[in-house]
Write a structure and sequence with these properties.
heterotrimer, A alpha/beta, B alpha/beta, C alpha+beta, A: alpha/beta, 2 domains, five-stranded mixed sheet, three-stranded antiparallel sheet, 13 helices, globular, B: alpha/beta, Rossmann fold, four-stranded parallel sheet, 16% strand
């Protein structure tokens, strides 16, 4: 457990001290003791805070885009050194996707990969913690690790065991890529992937269309459009988003070209219909690109099961076109390619 | 924001059809010049190629109150721009599955290939789409309602 | 102020007896709580901890239609939605959220420019507060000048006792609300009042986290340009959770939605965490990065609000900490200001 921490810290420290990377993206312990907090280390000392344990839920790949979006100050020379990043198995696919889509070149990212047995769902762990009446203040020294079917939390020299299935993220239960697909350095032993199945979709698949519609209507109507699902997504990197435009006043003299350039696909008003529009747009934009890291589902403040959408999409894409994004660095994009023999289903 | 209050029996659906200018639109044109009769519920929007059609256009049509949407382009292999409709095919097949997943009836959204010589084919497609949508009744799910 | 008592099994009857109002109650939704219009008294979960979204959206809806218009051949046909505002009850609001309404008043009802929509809704709303007996881990209302049993901004105040609720009717509005249900209320004894004080003390002892705001505003201004703000916002993904779920945030945007014939003007919440919020027409953005945007949030809550209204813009509900996907912790940030080395001449 702490050996993994040390390994990560040592790698990051060395990279920063030698000036091989401009900064390093990783997790530190959050203030509540349970969770981890994404951060950027710019000096070797900051790298000493890094942790790698089952609380590292964050997908650091989404922070790569900051670098592209930053506007240089006048006269500032761009730093061409690579960015150091810590990734788990699922995150490494997101990095690979960014390389596939030429957002970054392979040399621009220094990837420190870690094999992962799953990460904990912090709210669930907190609940279990409170239920057992464990001291809250003890979390300052909390250390988490996974051993077989148990999540072990050690604090103050004591140990507390939780069943892995109870406190682990839903997404980790069906994870097929626990080992990084690309990396420069690797931490940990290879982990056995979970079987290729979609048990999480079965319930929804059994529903009738009307039931599904009722389900999604209720879910979408609670959306507050905080856009966390979009912002956290490692595949969303546009400078200007098609669903978030300031409302341009169209007058009688607005030309069609102007209207086209500023087409408004989704209103800012979070009514059920507009939310539906937003989520469908988001889902469609992720088609064949989503790497199934499940972050959108985690960040949603009102608990919309967005992963039901992305998982279904993943299933469709794999069944129909046998395509999976972010497995290597070869340029590849489902919707920008075609095959003469693609299936014809559904055309009149 | 529409005046679609008819009851189901004499319900006249509003269908938005996105047609590529080289095949499907020409096909619709041919249907006209050959005096093939087909219902007038279809409002045609001509685009240069079926691959111009962003699935968000479809969502927008539904949000603005369309009862059904039809997208039509050249047969695979016949695209004026050689490969455009291959992209369309991938996009729309997946998009349709996504609509089904959230509970939209697949008959609301249709895709078809109609070539410039298929005047009768176009009329058949339109009849089929209108029959399907008529069966479903007015689309009220995705239409943006005036709040409160 | 008059004090009554009501037994727990009569609570549902009390809720049903409220007529002529839209009653917003905390309801369960998934594993979270939301304030929604009560359809059935059984939906009300008064034992809730905290609602995911603050009930400020009853008075200041996220999606408020200001007017509907139709374009006629001879001019405009405008329907002002101000005429259709009904009456509301927020039942079971926590002290933090009720105090936030007070803060919103200073913004929307202050001075020359009174917001008519807000004013009307505020006037039509009766606030029934519910004392908090078990604060969450990240609650810190005691540190920002309130407490779990504060009655500020309440029309009626409820305290959950072992065998019932203590009902304190504070304002005339509260009296009017309960006028129909007086038969359900019984008188209270001194034992109940002392029990209430006991609960208050017990609850206050449960608070884990606190924040010391004294002198922080000056210190924060000192280090305005510090790299400290870059470091605290490193993990920010730029979503609007902290602001949209904040009970005191009040920024909004006006949207015109419609066609050539008809349409509506809608007011929607906006958030200072989006780049579009400060984007100029020239495409210059004075708050270009997440550092500047997060800094603005902390400064607005802890410096500017205090300067303008002598009231902190934070009520200590802890929602931004609980819900932040990347663990940005306002308590840590404000406390951390003291340890920043630079800027202190």
């Amino acid at each position: 457990m702490s050996a993994k921490n040390d390994q990560l810290r040592k790698i990051a420290r060395t990279l920063l001290a030698e000036g091989k990377v401009k900064y390093f993206l990783g997790n530190v312990r959050g203030a509540d003791g349970f969770s981890s907090k994404p951060t950027t280390a710019r000096t070797p000392e900051e790298a000493n805070e890094f942790v790698w344990d089952p609380s590292c839920v964050n997908n650091m790949a989404s922070y790569l885009h900051e670098d592209k979006k930053r506007v240089l100050k006048r006269g500032e020379e761009p730093d061409t050194r690579p960015i150091g990043i810590f990734v788990k198995g699922c995150d490494s696919r997101s990095v690979a996707l960014n390389i596939q889509e030429h957002i970054f070149e392979r040399e621009q990212i220094y990837i420190v990969g870690a094999t992962c047995e799953g990460v904990v769902d912090v709210p669930k762990l907190k609940k279990a913690w409170m239920k057992r009446g464990l001291p809250v203040a003890a979390t300052n020294t909390l250390q988490l690790s996974i051993n077989g079917d148990e999540v072990i939390a050690s604090f103050d020299g004591k140990q507390e065991k939780f069943a892995k299935d109870d406190v682990i993220m839903q997404r980790c239960k069906v994870c097929r890529y626990p080992n990084p697909v690309i990396y420069d350095e690797l931490i940990g032993e290879q982990v056995e992937p979970k079987p290729d199945a979609y048990p999480d979709l079965e319930e929804m698949e059994a529903m009738s269309p009307a039931e599904r519609w009722a389900f999604w209507t209720e879910q979408f109507s609670t959306c507050v459009r905080c856009l966390a699902c979009r912002n956290v997504c490692p595949a969303c990197y546009c400078r200007e988003c098609s669903v978030q435009r300031s409302n341009p006043a169209f007058g009688p003299r607005t030309t069609p070209t102007e209207k086209m350039a500023k087409a408004q696909f989704s209103n800012k008003t979070p009514t059920m219909e507009d939310n539906f529009n937003f989520h469908m747009s988001r889902m469609y934009h992720m088609t064949g690109r989503c790497t199934n890291c499940g972050e959108c589902n985690r960040v949603c403040p009102v608990g919309i099961p967005l992963r039901l959408l992305t998982r279904k999409m993943d299933k469709d894409v794999r069944e129909t076109y046998d395509h999976e994004s972010g497995l290597d660095t070869e340029p590849k994009n489902l919707l920008a390619e075609y095959d003469d023999d693609d299936p014809e289903g559904g055309f009149l | 924001m529409t005046d679609n209050n008819e009851n189901n029996e004499n319900f006249e659906p509003k269908i938005i059809a996105f047609l590529c200018t080289w095949c499907s639109y020409a096909g619709a044109d041919l249907a006209g010049s050959a005096r093939i009769q087909y219902p007038t519920n279809v409002k045609i929007i001509k685009v240069m190629c079926s691959s111009r059609i962003n699935p968000l256009f479809v969502l927008r049509a539904f949000r603005k109150g369309a009862d059904g949407v039809l997208v039509s382009g050249c047969h695979p292999g016949d695209c004026h721009y050689l490969t455009g409709n291959y992209f369309t095919r991938r996009r729309l097949i997946l998009f349709k599955k996504q609509l089904e997943w959230v509970g939209i009836d697949p008959n609301r959204f249709h895709m078809s290939w109609v070539s410039a010589s298929e005047g009768q084919g176009w009329a058949d497609v339109v009849n089929k789409v209108i029959d399907d949508v008529k069966e479903l009744g007015p689309q009220d799910e995705m239409r943006r309602k005036v709040v409160e | 102020m008059t004090t009554y008592k009501i037994s727990k099994d009569k609570m549902n009857e009390l809720l049903t007896s409220i007529k002529g109002y839209d009653v917003y109650v905390p309801t369960e939704m998934g594993d979270k709580f939301q304030f929604r219009v009560m359809k059935d008294a059984g939906d009300a979960k008064l034992g809730y901890s905290q609602s995911a979204k603050p009930p400020k959206d009853v008075i200041f809806p996220q999606n408020e239609v200001l007017m509907n218009y139709k374009i006629q051949p001879n001019g405009f046909d405008v329907e002002n939605s101000l005429d259709h505002i009904g009456k509301f009850v927020i039942f079971g609001i926590r002290n933090c959220d009720a105090r936030a309404l007070k803060y919103l008043d200073t913004q929307m009802l202050n001075g020359k420019y009174v917001d008519p929509y807000y004013a009307k809704r505020r006037e039509n709303t009766t606030v029934v507060g519910l004392a908090c007996n078990s604060p969450l881990y990240n609650c810190f209302c005691r540190s920002v000048g309130a407490g779990p049993h504060h009655k500020e901004g309440h029309d009626v105040h409820l305290t959950e006792l072992d065998d019932g609720y203590l009902v304190e009717v504070i304002t005339d509005k509260g009296k009017e609300l309960l006028a129909n249900s007086m038969s359900l209320l019984a008188g209270s004894s001194d034992a109940d009042t002392s029990k209430q004080a006991e609960l208050k003390q017990a609850c206050e002892a449960k608070f884990v986290r606190k924040i010391d705001v004294k002198g922080n505003d000056k210190r924060m201004l000192d280090i305005f340009e510090s790299d400290y703000w870059r470091d605290v916002s490193d993990g920010c993904i730029g979503c609007g959770i902290c602001t949209l779920l904040c009970p005191t945030c009040f920024c909004f945007d006006i949207q015109d939605i419609g066609s050539r014939k008809e349409g509506q003007r809608v007011r929607v919440w906006d958030s200072c965490q989006y780049p579009e919020y400060t984007m100029h027409a020239s495409s210059h953005n004075p708050r270009p990065g997440k550092k500047e945007r997060q800094r603005q949030r902390f400064f607005h809550k802890y410096v500017y609000s205090y300067k303008n209204n002598q009231m902190l813009g934070c009520v200590g509900c802890g929602r931004c900490i609980n819900q932040c996907p990347t663990q940005i912790d306002i308590i840590d940030v404000i406390e951390g200001v003291k340890n920043v080395k630079e800027g202190s001449e």
